[in-house]
Amino acid sequence: QAQLVESGGGLVQAGGSLRLSCAASGFIFSLYAMAWYRQAPGKQRELAAFISSSGTTNYADSVKGRFTISRDNDKNTVFLQMNSLSPEDTAVYYCRSYTGPHWGQGTQVTVSS
C-alpha cells in the first residue's frame, strides 16, 4: 500500500522560501512519476509541479521560475523548493504518486504579505 507523508510547510513572509518534502513508501519509488498539487481556500486542487521517473519536470505557469521539483530515489523522497513566495501561493500542498494515484495528507503553506 503506497503511503506518502509530506512535511516542511509553515508560515513565511512574502519573498521567502520553503522546501517541502514527501517521503514515499509501499511501492518502487524510482519507477513512478510524482507531483505536487496545491489547493487554495475556495479553489480547486491544481497541479503545481511534476517530475517523471526519469527526472523530466513540468510546472504550472504560475510557479515556473520560482519552484523546483526534484527527487532522491535513494531516499524515496520528492522535494519542492519554493522561492519568491507570494500570498497567492498560500494553499495546502499535496504530494501525489502516479501509482493509483495516491495522495499524501497535505501540508499547509501560508505566505503573509
Query: What best-fitting shape do the alpha-carbon axes yield?
Result: globular
- Overall SS class: mainly beta
Number of helices, where a helix is a run of at least 4 consecutive DSSP H or I residues: 0
N-end to C-end Cα span: 40 Å
Fraction of residues in H or I helices: under 10%
Beta-strand portion reads over 45%
How confident overall, as mean pLDDT?
97
The protein's oligomeric status is single chain
Radius of gyration: 13 Å
Uncertain runs are: none
Largest sheet: 7 strands, mixed
| Number of separate strands | 11
> What string gives the helices and strands in order?
EEEEEEEEEEE
Description:
This protein is an all-beta fold and 113 residues long. The chain contains no helices and eleven strands. It has strands at residues 3-7, 10-13, 18-25, 34-39, 46-51, 57-59, 67-72, 77-82, 91-97, 102-103, 107-112. The protein is globular.
Primary descriptors:
about 110 residues, mainly beta, 7-stranded mixed beta sheet, 4-stranded antiparallel beta sheet, 11 strands, globular
What's this entry about, in short?
This protein is mainly β. It contains no helices and eleven strands.
Topology, pairings included?
Layout: E1 3-7, E2 10-13, E3 18-25, E4 34-39, E5 46-51, E6 57-59, E7 67-72, E8 77-82, E9 91-97, E10 102-103, E11 107-112
Parallel strand pairs: 2-11
Antiparallel strand pairs: 1-3, 3-8, 4-5, 4-9, 5-6, 7-8, 9-10, 9-11
